[in-house]
Amino acid sequence: MSATTADTHVFDVREDNFEAEVLQASLTTPILVDFWATWCGPCKTLGPMLEKLAAEFNGAFRLAKVDVDKSQQLAAMFGIRSIPTVMLVKDGQILDGFQGALPEGQLREFLQRHVQPLDGAANDELEAAPESPEETINRIQQAIAAEPERAELKLDLALALMRAGNADAAEAELASLPANLATDARAVRLRSQLDLARALKGAPSLAELQQRVQADAGDWAARDLLGVRLLLEGDAPAGLDQFLVTLEKARDWNDGQAKKRLLAAFTTLDDAELVGRYRRRMASLLF
Predict the structure, then answer these.
(1) What is the CATH number of domain 10-127?
(2) Pairing state of beta strands 31-36 and 93-99?
(3) How far is the C-alpha of 224 from the C-alpha of 199, rounded, in Å?
(4) Radius of gyration (Cα) for the chain, nearest Å?
């Protein structure tokens, strides 16, 4: 796709046109930069969704495609270590980004934080109810049935099952992945999530754990499970805070489990700023 085509919202970019087509152009229109490669399975899932959203947003942002094999210097300049990696460039600066093939609902949420669509149709899409976990699982299962040779879809299914709270099914899908996907960053993150989820088998409810910690601040077992439950139920900062309290007050409890929990949690989280902040807090307690 030519970068000089005036009426397109998606274009290819390399070292020789990056400054003009991305950095300079972002002064007037946000540019979403997709670092990808032809051999990357998750890229084949993410790319079409990004292109679809670029069309729906109708020029509110433009999508720049960077083939990392053809633009190795550009990939190195931005420290790209895994693909797909997506960065949003606005006013000549990297504003936000993510790694991995996010579901379409999360892509819309990401864009909505920074970009306003230019037509009513896109707004209608954004205001529609997000895809439920069950709908996501059903959509991916249908895609697998239609294209069983696309092994990366099994990783998408494992992630969707985990988000729906079906850890056993997610673990089964993860175990069936081919070797090249078993080391994918998303698979590594899912393994950490499953390790944390196992700790909650037979665990008390959130309310009961909170009551136990309020009644006895030194109930480290309850505090540990409370941290895991908060983390997996979507309140990551509150969960990490529980582990930090244990690290500060009872560092050696259960063979240093608080530190292990924190390191596992960092692997599961996508929020680099949050992880960085809590890594520094952990380091301040350890050193």
Answers:
(1) 3.40.30.10
(2) unpaired
(3) 9
(4) 21
Q: Is 275 a catalytic residue?
A: no
Length of the chain: 287
The first and second tokens of residue 44, run together, are 């084949």
Tell me the per-residue pLDDT of 163-210, one tens digit each, with 9 for 90 and over. 787 888 989 988 988 888 877 778 888 888 898 888 888 899 999 999
Could you say which of 3, 22, 43, 177 is catalytic?
43
C-alpha pair distances (Å), 27 with each of 54, 79, 89, 93, 135: 18, 23, 9, 9, 38
Fold of 206-286: 1.25.40
pTM, whole model, 2 decimals? 0.51
| Residue 119, pLDDT score | 54
Is residue 144 within 8 Å of 153, Cβ to Cβ? yes
Fold identical between 133-198 and 206-286?
Answer: yes
Q: Are 61 and 31 in contact (CB under 8 A)?
A: yes
Task: Clarify whether 112 is annotated catalytic.
Answer: no
Query: Would you kindly state where each structural domain of the chain is located, as residue ranges?
Result: 10-127, 133-198, 206-286
What confidence tier does 11 reach under pLDDT thresholds 50, 70, 90? very high
Torsion on CA atoms 196, 200, 204, 206, rounded to nearest 10: 40
- Tally Cβ neighbours within 10 Å of residue 137: 19
- What residue type is assigned to position 178 of the chain? P
Residue 130: pLDDT band (50, 70, 90) is low
Which candidate in 40, 75, 161, 236 is catalytic?
40
Residues paired with residue 67 on neighbouring β-strands, in sequence order:
36
Flag whether pLDDT at 20 surpasses 60: yes
| Calpha distance 12→33 (Å, rounded) | 10
Sign of CA dihedral 203, 205, 208, 210: positive
- The residues near 43 (Cβ < 8 Å, ≥ 6 apart) are 34, 36, 37, 83, 84, 101
- The CATH topology of domain 133-198 is 1.25.40
